[in-house]
Amino acid sequence: MKKRVSILGVTGSIGQSCADVIASAPQRFEVCTVTANEDAQGLAAAAVRLQARRAIIADPLHEAVLRDALEGQGVAVLSGPEALEQAVQADTDLSIAAISGMAGLRPLMHAIKNSKVVAIANKEPLVAAGALVKAAAEKYNTRILPIDSEHNAVFQVFDPAQRANIQRIILTASGGPFRTWSLEEIEKATPEQAVVHPNWDMGAKISVDSASMMNKALEVIEAYVLFDMPAEQIDVLVHPQSVVHSMVEYADGSILTQMGASDMRTPIAYALAWPGRMNTPGQRLDLAKMSQLNFETPDLERFPALRLAYECLEKGPMACLTLNAANEVAVAAFLAGKITFPDILRTIEFALGQEPDISLNTIDSVEKADEVVRVRISTYIKDELLPSMMKVKAV
Length: 395
Prior knowledge:
Blueprint: E1 3-8, H1 13-23, E2 29-36, H2 40-50, E3 54-57, H3 63-69, E4 76-79, H4 81-85, E5 94-97, H5 105-114, E6 117-120, H6 124-139, E7 143-146, H7 149-157, E8 166-173, H8 183-187, H9 191-194, H10 204-212, H11 214-227, E9 234-238, E10 244-250, E11 255-259, H12 265-273, H13 305-315, H14 317-335, H15 341-352, H16 363-394
Parallel strand pairs: 1-2, 1-5, 2-3, 3-4, 5-6, 6-7, 8-9
Antiparallel strand pairs: 8-10, 10-11
Helix pairs in contact: 1-12, 2-3, 5-6, 6-11, 6-14, 10-14, 11-13, 13-14, 14-15, 14-16, 15-16
């Protein structure tokens, strides 16, 4: 029997990699639903390629284009936020949650309700609403699988039966494009420099997060949520080759690692085939061609974002939500040329001193708090940081 799959966010980089893996094994998978935000042509192409039953576009303004592109293909077309939120129906065995940012929270929660397994690629809902996501998974007896390469690696070598004997989780980080840069050079970094990742092919936002190591900071929080490990038992090592994707150290001194090429199709294939394995169209790792594997302790002076993750875990869920929301706004402003690279961290630290006083016990409250932070930080950037940036550009 084929596994029935839905892909939330099929036109993004993760969604496209998912489509590659599924298309390589049509005998194993049947696609129920594919979604996109506004890329109607990309969504239509994916729906046809994967022979999906339904295609949902979040922005209704692009529905007509989608309908025209799918005319005669036998694919049901829906649009709008409500359709996106309820994209995953009960005919789905496994859902891929790959919608970027907090926009993916409600579709994720609905997917948890209607799927046996949900493979999560976007870390933001886990960072901002981890307790609610885990509670929903427990309520509906849904298995959560991480697609993020680091957490997928941990999942593969983390033995729940030996939890008492697990000493620590070690997440690896490439170090990003600025790993060898001086503090002075980093302060002058441009968006064009920040989006060039040395190993992975990623979108602009996550590439900037890698450059600041905020991506790894969010992943520390994600690991805390996914594996129920105390923050002090989650470490980070810089590993420039991105071959060892993460490690788990046990009480006897053994360190189990998952290794592979820098290709997201590998962890995606693991999630799609779980609890089994499958062949993939992804790259293969040839260890004989690896001259060396290096590991370094992160430099928190040059990359202080990592420190903020542990501070936020100590403070609580609202700090984690604030960290995520402020970072999204700040990175967007940096990519738009409104603030400098160091301003990203300044913005986040300002936000963490202005946390909303809201209990995060419902999806509505999470979204309200998220919006409060975003509005506050947008105002801070406009009133405090943008004028300084304009003065510098005028000189």
